[in-house]
Amino acid sequence: MNLDDAGRAAADVLPQDVWDFLSGGSGAEMTVAANRVAFDDVFIVPRVLTDVSSCGTSATLLGSRVTMPVGVAPMAYQQLFHPDGELATARAAEVAGVPYEASILSSYSLEEITAVCTQTWFQVYWLRDRILMGDLIDRAENLGCKALALTVDAPRMGRRLRDIRNGFALPSHVAAGNFPRPWTDTARRGTAGSSSSMMHTGEAFDPALTWKDVAWLRGQTHLPIVLKGVLHPDDAVQAIEIGVDAITVSNHGGRQLDGAIGSLTALPAVAAAVEGRAQVLMDSGIRSGADVLKALALGASGVFIGRPVLWGLAADGQRGVDRVLQVMQTELEDALALSGCVDVRRARHLDVLPRSSSAPVSPVQRGSR
């Protein structure tokens, strides 16, 4: 009936170490909690006496029309959760008519994923191997990907204590489908008291990523570029000046800096700084259609959901993901109607009331969108 139901179903079928890999964050998981607190502390001020006999959820993200302003966030190694992995989630996104953001660390290749989803975006981390980076960009373009998303909040992986305590390693049947199988050998070598996936990404990812590299990337591709992992307004402005097409306000689901600001908390200031010059997206902590409405009201053009998709995948493969996305659309339509919005465009003009405030925050105060 809601996304939490999918979470309970997933917890019943997944091994404990895989559940921890999915659910956990870095450090004491303060930021994981902060993401939900941020949504719970925001209240919508509904409008009334509007004809909401028909409410439209469709939107435009990076020039493509989608059935709702919701996409599937990039998540690695989905064969951990179901044998069909990314193919199931990508097919579900295609059926739902929403973007699917394929991770560079997908357990199926980009060729296989784009064959089943026409609205594929490709997410990359910055690799130490610049030639390999160029090859991946070329593949994304040639396969018809709609956007290239560069994750910039992971110069190194956060210390995910659940994985370290579990000695988490990829099982033998899971590998990174976009690379030759030996590329992920380190991630499959389990060691007590350490995370093999953390060791592998330390070898593969380049912590020297700077704005110069983002400018280089802009010159290498005609695809729209999304900068994922931005929380500070000044970083968003600098990205736009380089030519980035969209910003994803994200703290990596609480899996990087523990104690980082909640994504929804950071969203209004970033949206105000961007001033409509690029689309502002967000992820981290979204669990309902009402959460989507809150993000739209605070300045987002769209949101990407992560863990709930994997809950559905673990519970019932593509049918589970289908159901998660169906519930999300039903809840969003319901939230629009009950707040007096005939479409998602109107939602961006709703007033919101922080729990600790006695006065609504108006669209003017949040900045023009």
Write up what this structure looks like.
- Residues 1-357 form the FMN hydroxy acid dehydrogenase domain.
- It comes from Streptomyces colonosanans.
- Belongs to the FMN-dependent alpha-hydroxy acid dehydrogenase family.
- The active site is at residue 252.
- Its cofactor is FMN.
- With 369 residues, this protein is α/β, with parallel strands linked by helices.
- 42% of the residues lie in helices and 14% in strands.
- The chain has helices at residues 3-13, 16-23, 30-40, 85-96, 110-114, 130-142, 161-166, 196-204, 211-220, 233-242, 263-274, 289-297, 307-338, 344-347, 363-366, and strands at residues 42-45, 59-61, 64-66, 70-72, 100-103, 120-124, 147-151, 225-230, 246-249, 279-283, 302-305, 351-354.
- It has one domain: TIM Barrel (Alpha-Beta Barrel).
- Helix 11 links the parallel strand 9 and strand 10 (279-283).
- The strands form 3 sheets. Strands 4-11-10-9-8-7-6-5 form an 8-stranded parallel β-sheet. The protein has a two-stranded antiparallel sheet with strand order 1-12. Strands 2-3 form a two-stranded antiparallel ribbon.
- Helix 12 (289-297) crosses helix 13.
- It is built from 15 helices and 12 strands.
